[in-house]
Design a protein that fits this description.
Shape: globular
Number of helices: 10
Strand order of the largest sheet: 1-2-4-3-5-6-7-8
Strand content: 15-25%
Radius of gyration: 21 Å
Number of strands: 8
Helix content: 40-55%
Largest sheet: 8 strands, mixed
Distance between the termini: 77 Å
Order of helices and strands: HHEEEHEHEHEHHHEHEH
């Protein structure tokens, strides 16, 4: 009789407490990390209700329109996925790979290209897997996408005879770039510019939920398990906070004091843990991934000064 009562109680707990939590966490996972249709994360401005985001997108399109004759459509296949990008060939023997954040296509990256052209770099922008015109179903927080960047580097190096590469990443793009550099074994990378790099995706996603006044636990922990099962990645125990310790190339950290997702104290921690040549530039204004739109002159000059120093 006692066993039956315990079984009933456990069943009720599962049905009325644990199961609803799992359902909600799975819903959040599908909304945030799964491309459920081709219209999701397609090419275009991802936040048409955000005035700064629209300006960034429009200014990027204007920049790219000046160099239509320099754009070469490129594609690779990696891990069974067809991935596409655009290569701006200005005739240099160096290339910068600009990597956007989650939900963005390669169009977003145009906005960050101007200082690199001035510095003598060709520019590669790509649709990450599950974004834009590229194949894929899951956003894996850079923990699988970095393998694509390694393949892009090899492809561009061989096809266009590029000697050196820089990576400029924004948010998840900076994490992806860091993984690529530290795991590739390639000697063609010069360094990385990291805009808003977080410690782990778990940490920044948690901060997103806090900012949106959503309940954080236990949903995010259940989502952590779902991502390990569905995507094969661990967003809590793997991240820049681990990979930064393996970096042996120069890095420029760009951070805003107003960033609610890559918090200043966590950002400083990443800088402190980095063993390589490093610089950090703080900006007083700018939401996460919106530093340049609020501080364009300082942002671009910081990049130019850093790149000239490491050449």
């Amino acid at each position: 009789m006692l066993i039956l009562i315990i079984t009933i109680i456990l069943t009720l707990i599962m049905l009325f407490f644990i199961l609803p939590l799992i359902i909600i966490a799975h819903y959040v996972f599908r909304q945030q990390m799964v491309r459920t249709s081709k219209d999701k994360w397609k090419r275009g401005c991802s936040a048409t209700d955000n005035e700064e985001q629209v300006r960034m997108y429009d200014e990027g399109l204007v920049w790219a329109s000046q160099y239509k004759d320099k754009i070469i459509e490129v594609s690779i296949k990696n891990e069974g996925l067809n991935l596409v990008g655009e290569y701006f060939d200005f005739g240099y023997d160096k290339c910068v790979i600009i990597l956007q954040g989650r939900t963005e296509s390669l169009l977003y990256c145009y906005y960050y290209a101007e200082p690199y052209k001035d510095l003598g770099y060709n520019i590669l922008v790509v649709d990450s897997r599950a974004h834009g015109l590229s194949d894929g179903k899951y956003n894996c927080a850079g923990l699988k996408e970095y393998k694509d960047i390694i393949e892009w580097t090899k492809y561009i190096k061989k096809r266009f005879n590029i000697k050196k590469f820089l990576i400029h990443g924004i948010c998840i793009g900076s994490a992806t770039g860091l993984y690529a550099i530290t795991e590739s074994g390639l000697d063609c990378y010069e360094g990385i510019i990291a805009d808003g790099m977080y410690t782990t995706f778990y940490e920044t996603f948690k901060n997103h939920m806090i900012d949106e006044k959503r309940r954080v636990h236990p949903f995010i922990d259940i989502m952590l398990v779902i991502m390990r099962i569905r995507c094969g990645v661990n967003i809590k125990n793997k991240g820049p906070i681990k990979s930064i310790k393996k970096l042996d190339l120069p890095i420029l950290f760009l951070y805003s004091l107003e960033d609610k997702f890559s918090l200043p104290e966590k950002s400083q921690l990443l800088y402190d843990l980095c063993p390589s040549e490093k610089e950090i530039v703080w900006f007083e204004k700018g939401a996460h991934s919106h530093i340049r739109i609020n501080n364009k002159e300082k942002y671009d000059e910081s990049i130019k000064t850093f790149v000239k120093k490491i050449k």
